[in-house]
Model the fold of this input.
Amino acid sequence: MGLYRRYGTKDKYKEKTRNIVLAAVLICLAVITLFPIYYMVISSFGAPTEAGGASYSLIPKSFSLASYQFFFDYSQYSFRWILNSLLVAGIVTVCNVLFASLAGYAFAKLRFPGCQFFFFLLLVAMMIPYQVTQVPLYILVVNVLKWQDTYIALVAPTLVTCYNVFLAKQFFTSLPTSVIESAKIEGCSQPLIVWKIVMPLSKTVLAVMAITTFLGEWNTFFWPFLVCNSEKMQTIQVGLKNFSFANTTYFAPMMAGATISALPMFILFFSLQRYFLEGVTVGAVKG
Amino acid sequence: MNKAKKKKMKKEVVWAYLFILVPLSTFIIFTIYPVITSVITSFQKYRPLGSEWVGFSNYVSTFKSSLFYKALKNTAVYTVITVPIGILMSFIVSIMIVPFRKGIQSFFKGAFYLPAIASGVALSFVWKWIYDPLPSGLLNSLLRFFGVSNQNWLGSSKTAMASLIIMAVFGGLGQNIIIYIAALLGIDPTYYEAAEIDGSTFLQKVRYVVWPLVKPTTVFLAITSVINGFQSFQTAYLMTGGGPDNATTMAGLLIFNRAFKYFEYGEACAQALLLAMIIAVFAILQFKVSANDVEY
Done:
């Protein structure tokens, strides 16, 4: 890295000390940012006793899963919350990847009347803050369509997001048109072109899209909180919040619940770190 | 154009419309339509069966309420402090990460990004216990070492906002760091060589080579973080509920409470539209100001 190198000098020793100092500072900072997560996991193994301050310890003294038991015993639907979250996030992810690919391909490679206009509409929709739509959306879904406590209410508004269509369009534009042309000459139909040529050529970007969508949908709190009243239909985030309001003094079980809600994403992150990190930079850095 | 080709073109157009059908109807039903009704509702007193037109009274009462200004001020304070600190910190950390090998780089990237993956609800629990007001609370016992007296972090109007800001800064670092590192790695090393030949020190290189070259990234991060800051709702809702004494009531929470606590849908829509306008003005201004001296 040229930023640090001094040309002409070859002081290996100096470079070593510099790196050690940098690493030490970075590790200190990382410890601070990771501390809440460490603390959450560690405390979740404490006993589910009701006491303020009893279990404020940075090093685990005992290991018990009783707090997890406590969390799952709290509501008969605890497991269902996790399933609900998985189901909703799964459906939303599949739909987003599929529909965003199709629309992205249409905007990138097909010419049709209104193409520019519809894409412009999309860009505008992307910039609207959610506060503007939240009330009418709530009225529409709950009062007009009567979708309260249904999966469709959870899924429909984010079935395919403007951002994902935009992302797909941006990437597909860079694919060589000649490949698509030759497929057309061979008699390949449009849906088959997307399925057999465009999507396989864009595996990475679609994987990134899938992961960011899944992550966002799993962690989303606001919308499920608004449209799910019955305990049966809540997602894990909403259930967790209600659990915490009912059990403010039970520290360890709360941390157990928090760990349960975060664990699937951590597992996903550690197995697919590359795509997660790519997902952050996609669209942010030019070139 | 012959007939066969024309037919083929027509088929392509039909497919194109089919492909954009689902996204387009989703946007129209769940974004465009709500935006239009939001404007209409802001001039109404909402009732499930037939709303009543009230003209500008929702806007008037918004402008008359002191809480609205307080919420705007809180939002501004929160954003103005969180965004520059967050950006500067992540810039410095990225510069520190960059000299290491790829593997170590990814390790640190992952470490700083992990809080962004945990759900906001889960993290808010943990931070609540860190900020526990009792002397046995984590932050309180830590600060006692340094002779700082016991603080009621989230419960006092003096420290509540600061507590939320600290949480936001540390939670948001990872994303900025990853973006900055990508930008830093994209800088052509010949710039450094040239600066070197001119006899510049490390800090001069950072100031006169790196900082101007990552400026587009900084602008991007600043604009997106300001927009997010203005819309922030979840942390305040889960951590303090806007209290104490509305010291942490920000615009997002104010609108939420108007709508789903007091069921004043019309006023909530009016406030949301005002917020959207403020965000738009800010984004445009920020873009104009910073685009002036961006060198591509």
Q: What stands out?
A: Residues 12-67 of chain A form one domain. The radius of gyration of chain A is 24 Å. Chain A touches chain B through 98 residues (CB under 8 Å). The mean pLDDT of chain A is 86.
